[in-house]
C-alpha cells in the first residue's frame, strides 16, 4: 500500500507520515502564517489526525487565532522548521506545511484564505 506521504524538517531529525488523502489544501495569507513562515503565505494541507505518525524533537507553540480558536504550531525542536498546525476549529485534522513534504510537487490546487492580509509583493 502506497497511500501515504512522508515529510520532515530541514535537519531531518523530525519526520512524519500521513495518509495521502487530504481533506483540505489551502494557501493561507494570514499574519500568523506570515510570522510563522517568514514569507508571504503558508501553503498547507489537512489530513485526518488519526492517520498521522511523527517522530523527532517537536517543539510546540500555542496561540489564540483571531477567530478565537486555540492553535498549536509544531516546529522541529532542533532546526526550527515549521511542520504542522492544529486548531480547535477542526480538532480531528492536522495541517502540514507543504514545504516539509518529501515531494512538495505533489501538492494540488490550493484554496486561498485570508487574502485580505496578502502582502502587495506576494503575487502567488
Ligand atoms: Zn529539524
Ligand atoms: Zn494562516
Entry keywords:
7-stranded mixed β-sheet, binds zinc ion, Metal Binding Protein, Guanine Nucleotide Exchange Factor, Chain A, 10 strands, 1 helix, 3-stranded antiparallel β-sheet, mainly beta, 6% helix
Which ligands, by name, code or SMILES, are bound? zinc ion
Backbone shape:
globular
H/E series, N to C?
A: EEEHEEEEEEE
Strand content: 35-45%
Structural class by secondary-structure content: mainly beta
So, CATH architecture?
Beta Complex
Distance between the termini: 34 Å
Uncertain runs:
none
Fraction of residues in helix: under 10%
Number of helices: 1
- What is the average of the pLDDT values? 94
Strand order of the largest sheet: 6-7-8-9-4-3-10
What is the CATH class name? Mainly Beta
Roughly how many Å is the radius of gyration? 14 Å
What's the story with the biggest beta sheet? 7 strands, mixed
Output the CATH topology: Metal Binding Protein, Guanine Nucleotide Exchange Factor, Chain A
What is the number of domains?
A: 1
Number of strands: 10
Amino acid at each position: 500500500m502506497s497511500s501515504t506521504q512522508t515529510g520532515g524538517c530541514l535537519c531531518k531529525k523530525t519526520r512524519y507520515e500521513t495518509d495521502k488523502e487530504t481533506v483540505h489544501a489551502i494557501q493561507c495569507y494570514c499574519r500568523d502564517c506570515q510570522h510563522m513562515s517568514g514569507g508571504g503565505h503558508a501553503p498547507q494541507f489537512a489530513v485526518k489526525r488519526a492517520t498521522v505518525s511523527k517522530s523527532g524533537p517537536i517543539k510546540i507553540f500555542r496561540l489564540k487565532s483571531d477567530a478565537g480558536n486555540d492553535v498549536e504550531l509544531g516546529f522541529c525542536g532542533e532546526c526550527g522548521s515549521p511542520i504542522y498546525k492544529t486548531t480547535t476549529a477542526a480538532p480531528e485534522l492536522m495541517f502540514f506545511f507543504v514545504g516539509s513534504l518529501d515531494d512538495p510537487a505533489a501538492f494540488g490546487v490550493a484554496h486561498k484564505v485570508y487574502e485580505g492580509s496578502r502582502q502587495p509583493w506576494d503575487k502567488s
